[in-house]
Amino acid sequence: MHLSATRQAFGLTRIELDTHRNAEGNEASYWSDDAVARTEFLAARYTDFAFPPHFHETHAIGIIETGGQRFSQAGRSSTVMPAGRLCVINPGMIHEGRAAGPGGWRYRMIYPNRDVITAALAGEDLSKADAAFGANIIDDPELFCSFYDLHTASQRRESVLERESRILLFLARLFTRHAGLRQKRRTGSLGRRSVDGLREYLHANWNSDIRTSDLATLLHCSQTHAVRAFSREIGLPPHRYLLALRVERVKEMIRNGLTLAACASQAGFYDQSQMTRHFKSFTGLTPGSYLQGLS
Predict the structure, then answer these.
(1) What is the DSSP string of 182-250?
(2) Were 104 and a residue from 47, 68, 214, 253 both cysteine, which residue would form a disulfide, CB within 3.0 to 4.6 Å?
């Protein structure tokens, strides 16, 4: 299914949500997200499919949701990547994979290019040795959940700000925790006044296509640091603050008599369904129920 050009503002014109299924129960969906430097995404369930020896030019990073994948690296014995774990594969590593049991495995993957990794690490040394992971299986429940959230955010076509924020923070934490990279010491921190200026920017551009680079420019820092600073000072990450602000504006538009479809469009949501989901998550009501309560 090719998405319409009307979705261009969401950075999704390159996405192909082509879901392939066969009689054996193998199923895979692939898309490429322009909002995060054309990072490639995969969501799949395989029962009897086996990957031949191959490699990736980028890091391959993912989670095993159910079942397990038997992973083999050239010249080494195989191991099982189990459910509930992160899996990471360094660029250029020859490997193969297949189901570890009769039920197969369900997993999600991203293949981030160097641009998005560099942005996440904000100037850290990205030499080949420094960027390599020492293990292919990582037990880190917090990062497992963070990965699931960033993956589904892209799949659900959330705002560009949310998709960028989630992947940048995830990659920064993953590489500093598990690839031996150390964060540089900062000579100073951003004050509340600077962050308040950023909040004013969100209020002035609440229905615009805001990016993390916009935040970084305003605060004169890296994209990752801008997201962290706002979250620390305000108590919500920028994308959640923007969502809450959009919900408040939708309430106002409903009270002023706009249709729900018009509200979704003018508030910067992908579609009315997305608006309804977020409206309910913040208020406990659907927009329709809110409208009925006003009459």
Answers:
(1) -PPPPS----HHHHHHHHHHHHHTTTS---HHHHHHHHTS-HHHHHHHHHHHHSS-HHHHHHHHHHHHH
(2) 47
| Cβ proximity of 107 and 69 under 8 Å | yes
Find, among 140, 163, 130, 127, the residue nearest to 87 by Cα.
140
Provide the Cα torsion 112, 113, 119, 125; round to 10°. 110
Residue with tokens 């998709």: 163
In the predicted model, is pLDDT for residue 11 greater than 90? no
163 in the same domain as 199: no
Say yes or no: 162 and 220 in one domain: no
The per-residue pLDDT for 132 is: 84
Q: Are 109 and 26 in a shared domain?
A: yes
| 202 and 114, same domain (yes or no) | no
